[in-house]
Design brief:
Strand content: 15-25%
CATH topology of the domain at 4-134 and 173-218 and 255-285 and 318-338: Rossmann fold
Strand order of the largest sheet: 3-2-1-4-5-9-14
Radius of gyration: 20 Å
Structural class: alpha/beta
Length: 376
């Protein structure tokens, strides 16, 4: 028999894919979503194939009465609803705190009431909880660099430094044992979200998972949001032959994880047996340099976009990202399967079937510059 599953933010990119995966496995799915225009644009309904298959609770995740109604009879909660822009979070402090921390606190209070049948809570966390993450120093071995200084980055020195000797370090895969040192307000809210989930899951005897998603991408992601999804931003600018700006020196890297791997890892949490609450990295385990990604996208579209590596940088950004996914394999018996080259091709093929979106990218940069968060 399947579970009754509530997905907050279920109309979004990950949520829609997740819903289809769970329905195909015989689970009963409900969705709570407010169809935020920054993400959904003018879309205010579920995709046509899901409208008759799921129960929709339309509204804001901060609405306690709506959440209480949606939780009735549910056995599993997948909490995806959140504000997700790292840069935007740095100046929308109250809003990100209200949505990400406040709503999660309300969810935990409702579960503490004892009125619901929920046995598993899965929260979408982020690699942003680590800040710069792990690195290796030639003198001191495995270290965890502090946030990079504005002064050094203004001089074009973008690499993290060893906290003991201040020498440049090499990136290392970051495991779940790494200290939590978020560089951004978004990362702070994700850290609190996951700690709330794991704390109260343990207190209530529930299965609890905090999934530290890396850079998720794939068909269906928002092409409208200027604050998240660098692959979407680059592809839309390349398709429109608009200028493409690469921050820092282009050597910064990200762990891009394909949507199908994210969905499968999350589904295995839904179907897992009883166990202690746990945080898990969900990534590919391989870093990809941003400049290399842009080159692939421009070549694919045959774009005439002018690509500039301009040395600019945003306060709150991290330099490198590579997840250690060994614990994911041990706990869920799952190894991410998608190579970046294959996933990127699927994503770019999908974008060709979509209308070119006019992303207010320059406006988002101007907002950060106005607040002293964008330099160069």
């Amino acid at each position: 028999m399947g579970n009754r599953v509530l997905i907050t933010g279920g109309a979004g990119f990950i949520g829609s894919h997740m819903t289809r995966r769970l329905l195909s496995a015989g689970h009963e799915v409900s969705v709570l979503d407010n169809f935020n225009p920054q993400i959904h644009g003018e879309v205010t309904e579920l995709p046509p194939d899901l409208r008759q298959a799921v129960r929709l609770f339309r509204g804001d995740i901060r609405d306690e009465s709506l959440m209480a109604k949606a939780l009735q009879m549910q056995q599993v909660v997948i909490h995806l609803a959140a504000e997700t822009g790292t840069g935007q979070s740095m100046y929308c402090v109250r809003h990100y705190t209200d949505v990400n921390i406040g709503a999660t606190s309300t969810l935990m209070e409702l579960l503490l009431s004892g009125k619901y049948q929920v046995q598993t809570v899965i929260t979408a966390s982020s690699r942003a909880v680590y800040g710069e993450g792990a690195a290796r120093c030639s003198k001191h071995g495995l270290v965890y660099p502090k946030p990079r200084s504005v002064e050094r980055m203004r001089e074009g020195d973008f690499e993290p430094k060893c906290p003991s000797c201040s020498q440049s370090v090499e990136m290392a895969p970051t495991s779940e044992e790494a200290p939590l040192r978020p560089n951004s307000l978004y990362g702070i809210t994700k850290q609190v979200q996951e700690q709330l989930t794991l704390l109260y899951a343990a207190a209530l005897g529930l299965n609890g998972f905090a999934l530290r998603y890396q850079n998720v991408y794939g068909p269906g992601q928002s092409l409208k949001n200027p604050y998240t999804g660098i692959l979407a931003i680059f592809s839309e600018r390349a398709r429109a032959n608009d200028p493409i700006y690469i921050f820092e020196d282009g050597k910064e890297s990200r762990d891009f994880v394909y949507i199908d791997d994210v969905v499968e890892a999350t589904a295995r949490c839904v179907e897992a047996g009883a166990q202690a609450p746990v945080a898990l990295n969900v990534g590919s385990g391989l870093p990809i340099a941003v400049a290399a990604v842009v080159k692939k996208i421009v070549e694919y579209f045959g774009s005439s976009s002018k690509v500039s590596v301009n040395g600019a940088f945003r306060v709150g950004d991290i330099r490198h990202n590579c997840a250690d996914v060994a614990r994911l394999g041990r706990i869920l018996n799952f190894v991410p399967a998608w190579r970046f080259e294959d996933g990127l091709l699927e994503f770019l093929r999908w974008t060709e079937s979509q209308e070119i979106q006019q992303i207010s990218y320059e406006q988002s940069l101007a907002e950060m510059r106005l607040r002293g968060l964008l330099h160069g």
